[in-house]
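User: Okay, second chain of the day. Same drill as before: sequence in, C-alpha cells out.
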Amino acid sequence: MAGNRKTNNRHADAIHRALEEENAAELATALLKAAIHYSGHWGNGEAAEVIGAVRARPVEFRRRLVDRLAETFRSLAEDSPARVNALALIAAAGRDLPGGGPLSAERLGKFDELGRMGQVHSYGWVSELVLAELDAGRTIPPAAVATLRRSALVAYGYRPVVELAPRLTEPVLNVGEAWADRAMADGNRWHALLAHAVTATAAKPTAKWEKAGRALIKEAGEDAVREQLLGWLRLVGAPRTFALDEERYGPNPNDTWDTYNANALRGLAWLLSFLPPHPDIARVLGALVETSLRKVAGLGPRNPKVANAGVTALSRIDSEAALAELARLATRVTFKGTLKMLDSALEARATALGLGREEIEELAVPAYGLTRVGQAEYALGGTTALVQVRGSKAVLSWRSATGKAVKSVPAAVRRDHAEELKELKAAVKDIDKMLGAQAERLDRQFLARRTWTYGQWRERYLDHPLVGTLARRLLWVVDGTPVGFADGEARTLTDGPVTEGAEVTLWHPIDREPAEVAAWQDWLERHGITQPFKQAHREVYPLTDAELRTGTYSNRFAAHFLRQHQFHSLAAVRGWRNKLRLAVDDTAPPAVRELPQWGLRAEYWIEGDTGGDQYEDITDSGSFLRLRTDQVRFYPIGAPQNSAHACGGEYTMWLRGGEDPVDPLPLAEVPALVLSEVLRDVDLFVGVASVGNDPTWQDGGPAGRFRDYWTSYGFGELNQSAETRRLLLQRLVPRLAIADRCRIEGRFLHVRGELRTYRIHLGSGNILMDPGDQYLCIVPAGRAAPGTETGYLPFEGDRTLALILSKAMMLADDAGITDPTVTRQILRERA
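Assistant: Same drill. C-alpha cells below.
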C-alpha cells in the first residue's frame, strides 16, 4: 500500500508540474503513464481531479495536449485498459474543442461496445466519452443511449451515468425491443404519446398524468390510438432485435425487459384504460400481464410492475371482457404481489355489485359468442363458420353453402369478411384460455363449501355456453341426489331425469360408499363422458393407522426430494403460499394453504437441500435447486406462524406481543374432505416435482447422492394416485389394441414386445426390461399424450397415465422403434 501511494504521488507530482508549466508534451507523457498505472479505474478518485484540472486549462493548450496524446495512443496495446483510459483522457481534454478532437473511429468503437452491454457500472471512460460527444453537439448512438438509460435506473447506479442520463432525450424509447422499434418506426405522430408513456413511473396514474394522457388520445383519435397501442403491445415479449452481451453474473439481459421501456409499457397499459371498452383491449392487457410474469433464470418474473399496470388498467375498464380477464388471471397468476392486486380488483367489483367474490367469478365468464353450450354458427357470405368446444379445446371449422365440410378458410371469407374472421380466431383462443382457467377454478371448489340454488346452477353452470362444457362432464348433488348430465338432461345413476330442485353442491367421493363411486365410474364410461379433471376417479386420503399414532402430523409425504422451482410454481397454482428457499441466513415459513371456509391452515414442512457441506446445489441467484420434505400439519387459521431456517432445522412458532403458542390440530379432528384434498395436493407436489420422476437419473443425480431415493421412488410401492391409476388401467387395458400383450401385476404394467418384455412402473412411468431388471431410459418428448389408439379415457390431466399408455404402445411394437437412443439400449442389453 505504501508503494502504491508513492507511485500515485509520483504521477500526481509530474502531472501538476507539467500543468503549472503548461508543457503539453510532458503532460501528455505523465498522463499516459498515469493511465497505464490506474489500469481501468480512470475517472475515479485522484484521476477525476486530474481530469478537472486539465479541462480548466486554455483551449489552445488543450488542443496541443490532445494532439500529443493522439500521437502516442496507437502505440498502446489494443486490449490494454490504459488504451481506454487514454481515450477517455483525449475525450475529456477535448470535450469542448471544435470537432471534439481526434480518434472518432475509436470513439465510435467504444460506443458500439457500450451499446452491447446490458448495464454499465463504474467505468470512468463512459461518462467522459459521452459528455465529450454531447458537448461537441454530436448524437450518441441509440444502442449506447439505451445502455446508459438502463444503467441510470439501477439501484445505487454509477453516479456519473445517473447524472448525465437526463441529457439523453432521444430516441424516445430504447432501441432493441421489437415493440419499441415498431412504435418508433410508426412515425413522429406518436412521439408525444410515447414520451408521455415513458413518464409512468408511479404505481398508478395520477390525475395530472391521466388528464395529459386523455388530451393526447383526443388529439390523435381514439380508434387510431387503440389500433397503434394494440399493435405495439402484441409484440411485447418477442425476441430482441439485436443481442446484448451476456454478463458473467445475473440473468441473461436478452431474456429480460429493458427497464426504461418498461415504464413506457406501464404508461401504454394505462392509456388503454382511458379508451372506450373493446374486447381486444382486454385480451392484450391480459396477455401483457402473463408475459410480464414469465420467469427468467436468475431473476424471477420479468417485470411485475408492468404486470401490475396491466391489472390496474383492467380494473378501470367497465366491461364484461375486462372482468373476464381479471377472473381468468386470478386462476392463472402465481406471483404474490400481482395476485393480491387481482384479488383486490375482483373484491372491489363484487362489492360494487353487492355480490360475493365467488359469485363475481361465476358471472365474469363470458360466452365468447357461443349461442348454445359449446357451439356457435356464423353465416359469412355463402359459408358457415362453426365454433365447437371439444374437450379442453375450441375448434373452428367451415361448411360450404351445400353443407359440405371445408378443410380451410374459404378464400371468399378471407377477402370479404377479414374482420369477422379475425374476431372468430381471437374468440377461439379466448375460449381455450378460459377453459383451462375455469377447470382450475372448478377443481378448487371442493374445499369452497359452495352451494347453489337450482336456478343459479342451471344458469351459471349447466346451461352456460362455455362453463357448461365443463359442468356437464361433472357430477353434482341436487337435494341429496347425485346426478350427471347425459342425453340433454341431468340424470340420476339409473338415468332418471332431474328437472328441478332446491340446493345443488359438487359431488365428492370422500363421503360416498365404494359401490356408489364404482357405479358412477361405470355410468361415465357408459355415456362416454371424459371429465375435465379427476372427480369420480379422484383419489381419497382417509386417516391411516400411522397418522392416528402420530396424532397431530402426517409423515405420509416426508423424506422426498423435490425440484424446488417446479414445486413452487405448482403450489401457487393449487392455492398454496410458499417462499423460495435461498442459501442465506434467513428463515421461511412452511408451504401454507389457508382454508378460511373451514377456519384452518394447512402446512407442508420443507427445507432447502444443501447438497452437502459445500452448498453445491444452488442456482446463480442463490436459491436451492431441491427441497427435502417433512410433515403435513393443520392449525387454526389465526395461529401464529411457524418458521425454520431456510437451510434446514426445526420449525418453531413465532410469537409476538405475548402471544401463546397454539398446538396443531389432531388429524382426527380435521374434516375428512379437508384432510383428503390437502393430502391430495401434497401427493401431486411429490408426484410431479420429485427427482425420482427424472428418467435420466438412474445414476443417482449429482455425485450419486439420490441413487437410493431414485430407485425406491421410481420402482417402489405405489402412492394413492398411482393406486388409482392401477385400478383404472385394469379397466382400460383389456380394450387396447395391444391388450393381448399387456397385463397388470402389482406395481407394474407388463408389456410383451417382439424383442423384450418390459415392466412400466405405475407411479413413475420408469421401465425395467427382462431379463435382469435392466433399466430402459426413455425421455418423453414434450407433453406426452395418448393417441386415439388408447380409446376412451374417463378424465383429463393425468400426464403420467398418458405417458404410461404411450410407452406401452411403443414397446409392444419394439421391433418398429426407430429412435436410436432407445434401440441401442434394447439391443445392447439383450445381446
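The radius of gyration is 33 Å.

User: Thanks, on to the next one.
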